[in-house]
């Protein structure tokens, strides 16, 4: 659907669409028109104009999220267009802002905020080439280092060294860009563009390198820390991290799979766990915690009770929680504040339905996102599930892939889901009757795609018809077989794949060596 543009915006588009004319005329443009021209050039992908606008930016701050977000002149939010052409022009424009200009006193720019850029699955820009978080990290680091080399080599304007611009960014570091980012952070104090890391994600990285680079990011400013795939962080390393570094502003923490495993706990491990809980308690801003695929049976209270601030987001998917853990969650002060909850991989409706419903009723006034994948939810549970979800009138997202539900049960559930007024996104499983008889759940990856696709399409059509007849075209219903889209994984999947093959090969070699020794 077309978004209305003001006359000012239409004029701005006309002005920037002739790049040569626009670039020549920038000197005479009023300062307060720069944001308007920037959004218009971004929409039209006018790379040279974008570059020159940033190079001559006359204002104190340059905030990508605000500049591209909903504005009075043009309502459409462009902040999820991670257009490669436009973003590269912005960043090279920023480098040239430092290098060009004879007079330093005109330069008022103090803060550049790149954190408002959102990485999404479907791109609407013309070039269709995206620059994700990893590539933005790479390019900014490269430009900062190039800038330093250039300033040292040439007899450039001494005023360039007087410039100091904080560049707020969400860094994403893997083995492949580690060296570059590390160098840029090490030399930050000499560079006019100061990388300020607001959120840090690390995948495919040796622990030693992770510990080194996290200290360079200035952890006192960090709001979000994500340690996700192939960083072999275990509980004792986490304790060292929290004991040696303070994260006073940390709001969101994601830990890799298997950080905790209480199955092999000793008395020392219990002490370590208690200490980690206490350290998290000192993080007074912490409201989001994600620790999937850890084994935490019976220890949730020990970990979460020291927290002073209630959690708004909790992901304990596949954490082998027991009755006591669920009872703690349902009765804790976190329950009334949970906006997003992931309990995937737990047979909640089989094992502890009443406690689960208590948890839902406590969080119902704020709960926006609920994920119950691979929870063995069957047809016999559907009425109970509807009863539990009924008070959740703020629910915007419900994901329940991997549950053995028939097409009939799904239709019944969808009829109810139409009544949730805020619902926007539903991820539903392939119906059980589309798979061969005798399939066992959870379904392994090899069998996941072996279902009757024609039958599935027909059921999906029926489900969409239920939404349509209830005037709920606003609800998107889908079955992403291999889980929801993850922009970071998508961007670094080749590196991720190579890493997995390497570790598989190493494991095989160790196995062969042990076999040879035995024989």
Q: How would you describe this structure to a colleague?
A:
The chain has 519 residues and is of the alpha/beta class. The chain has a domain at 7-131. The chain is 44% helix and 10% strand. The protein has 20 helices and 13 strands. It has helices at 7-17, 19-25, 34-43, 47-55, 64-68, 84-99, 133-153, 175-186, 207-216, 235-244, 267-282, 300-304, 323-331, 348-351, 353-363, 382-389, 407-417, 445-448, 453-469, 487-518; strands spanning 61-63, 111-113, 165-173, 193-202, 224-227, 252-254, 288-290, 313-315, 340-342, 369-371, 397-399, 425-427, 476-478. The chain has a 13-stranded parallel β-sheet. The protein is globular and about 75 Å long.
Oligomerization category of the chains in this entry: single chain
Q: Report, as a whole number of angstroms, the end-to-end distance.
A: 70 Å
Q: Shape, please? A: globular
Strand order of the largest sheet: 1-2-3-4-5-6-7-8-9-10-11-12-13
Classify the helix fraction into a percent range.
40-55%
The amount of beta strand, in percent, is 5-15%
Count of alpha/pi helices: 20
Q: What Rg, in angstroms, do the CA atoms define?
A: 26 Å
Q: What structural class do you assign from the helix and strand content?
A: alpha/beta
Give the strand tally: 13
Mean pLDDT metric: 93
Unreliable segments of 5+ consecutive residues: none
Biggest pleated-sheet summary? 13 strands, parallel
Keywords: Leucine-rich repeat, Repeat
Family: Belongs to the PRAME family. LRRC14 subfamily.
GO cellular component, one term: cytoplasm
Protein name: Leucine-rich repeat-containing protein 14B
């Amino acid at each position: 659907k077309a978004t209305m543009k003001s006359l000012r915006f239409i004029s701005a588009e006309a002005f920037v669409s002739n790049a040569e004319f626009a670039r020549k005329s920038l000197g005479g443009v009023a300062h307060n028109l720069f944001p308007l021209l920037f959004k218009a050039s971004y929409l039209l992908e006018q790379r040279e104009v974008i570059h020159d606008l940033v190079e001559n930016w006359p204002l104190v701050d340059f905030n990508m999220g605000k500049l591209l977000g909903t504005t009075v002149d043009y309502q459409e939010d462009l902040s999820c267009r991670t257009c490669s052409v436009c973003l590269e022009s912005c960043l090279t424009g920023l480098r040239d802002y430092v290098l060009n200009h004879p007079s330093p006193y005109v330069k008022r720019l103090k803060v550049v905020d790149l954190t408002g850029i959102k990485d999404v699955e479907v791109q609407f820009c013309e070039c269709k080439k995206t620059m994700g978080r990893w590539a933005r990290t790479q390019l900014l680091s490269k430009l900062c280092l190039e800038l330093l080399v250039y300033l040292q080599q040439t007899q450039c304007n001494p005023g360039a060294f007087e410039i100091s611009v904080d560049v707020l960014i969400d860094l994403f570091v893997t083995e492949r860009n580690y060296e570059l980012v590390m160098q840029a952070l090490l030399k930050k104090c000499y560079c006019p563009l100061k990388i300020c890391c607001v959120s840090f994600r690390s995948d495919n990285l040796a622990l030693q390198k992770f510990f080194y680079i996290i200290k360079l990011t200035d952890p006192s400013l960090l709001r979000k820390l994500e340690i996700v795939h192939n960083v072999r962080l275990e509980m004792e390393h986490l304790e060292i991290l929290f004991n040696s570094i303070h994260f006073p502003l940390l709001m969101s923490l994601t830990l890799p799979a298997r950080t905790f495993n209480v199955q092999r706990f000793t008395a020392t491990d219990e002490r370590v766990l208690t200490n980690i809980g206490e350290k998290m308690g000192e993080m007074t801003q912490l409201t989001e915690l994600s620790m999937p695929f850890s084994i935490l049976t019976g220890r949730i209270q020990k970990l979460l009770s020291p927290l002073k601030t209630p959690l708004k987001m909790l992901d304990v998917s596949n954490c082998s929680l027991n009755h006591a853990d669920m009872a703690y969650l349902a009765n804790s002060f976190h329950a009334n504040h949970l906006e997003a909850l992931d309990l995937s991989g737990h047979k909640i409706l089989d094992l502890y339905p009443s406690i689960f419903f208590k948890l839902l009723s406590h969080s119902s006034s704020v709960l926006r996102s609920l994920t119950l994948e691979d929870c063995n939810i069957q047809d016999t549970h559907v009425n109970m599930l509807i009863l539990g979800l009924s008070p959740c009138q703020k629910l915007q997202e419900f994901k329940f892939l991997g549950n053995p539900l028939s097409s009939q049960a799904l239709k019944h559930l969808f009829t109810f889901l139409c009544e949730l007024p805020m619902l926007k996104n539903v991820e539903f499983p392939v119906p059980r009757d589309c798979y061969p008889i005798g399939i066992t759940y959870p379904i392994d990856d090899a069998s996941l795609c072996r279902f009757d696709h024609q039958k599935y399409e027909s059921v999906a059509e029926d489900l969409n018809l239920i939404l349509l007849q209830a005037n709920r075209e606003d609800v998107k219903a889908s079955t992403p077989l291999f889980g929801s889209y993850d922009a970071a994984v998508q961007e670094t999947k080749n590196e991720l794949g190579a890493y997995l093959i390497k570790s598989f090969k190493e494991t095989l070699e160790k196995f062969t060596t042990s076999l040879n020794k035995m024989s």
